[in-house]
Specification:
mainly beta
């Protein structure tokens, strides 16, 4: 799903297994940059509930086997 500029979508985390994981998560597009957002439901001392938020760049898997045997220069050859 691609978000329009300055918009996004956040969903309830149905796979939450412990308190450190966010209650809600999703992606937002801020000024053309895709960001991952995580939200936790918190309670203030006065009893009011609020969201605590965290933003980070989306996780991108890298194929480690591709980089494992890569040689950048002929000078790196052992022979």
């Amino acid at each position: 799903m691609e978000n329009k500029n300055n918009s996004g979508a956040i969903f309830k985390n149905s796979k939450k297994t412990n308190e450190k994981q966010p209650d809600y998560q999703g992606t937002v597009n801020v000024n053309g940059k895709e960001m991952q957002v995580s939200l936790w439901i918190k309670e203030a001392k006065n009893g009011n509930k609020y969201f605590s938020a965290s933003f980070q760049e989306p996780f991108k898997k890298t194929n480690q086997t591709d980089n494992k045997f890569r040689i950048d220069s002929k000078d790196d050859m052992p022979f």
